[in-house]
Amino acid sequence: xxxxxxxxxxxxxxxxxxxxxxxxxxxxVYPDYxxxxxxxxxxxxxxxxxxxxxxxxxxxxxxxxxxxxxxxxEVINYRKSIKFFTKFDMDRTIRxxxxxEYEKLxxxxxxxxxxxxxxxxxxxxxxxxxxxxxxxxxxxxxxxxNSSGSEWISKKDAIALAQT
Length: 164
Hints:
Elements: H1 3-7, E1 12-14, E2 27-29, H2 33-46, H3 55-62, H4 73-86, H5 99-113, E3 127-133, E4 139-146, E5 149-154, H6 155-163
Antiparallel strand pairs: 1-2, 3-4, 4-5
């Protein structure tokens, strides 16, 4: 998640955005639909990256296809989807869209990408407060806890807890 997402209300990141450079880039997560939609709108319409691109060019950049390379299947399918849902001339620029058309583009992107509401899950964090060693000086138990209390658990249980 980059500075733009943070500045526009993102509360975290999830998943992994496919990219040719194999960078660990994640999708921004917003606290609610409205905040995410507003951030997407700002990114597309007010940023320099997309505003003067045609809809055809925009989708190449948006999906991460580098200049000088062929269209990917993802780009081809995204174009078909945008064209189908909006009926726009794909040689129009983002800048040329009026407010109503712009909302139509955002709705088409939402349909294509399959937006869905996520959920938050509270995970209680426990710290390792101590260890018991066996006769061979190998850890056999862990004292884990937090402000609400502590308990001794086996090494096997501690490993399982760490993996969840």
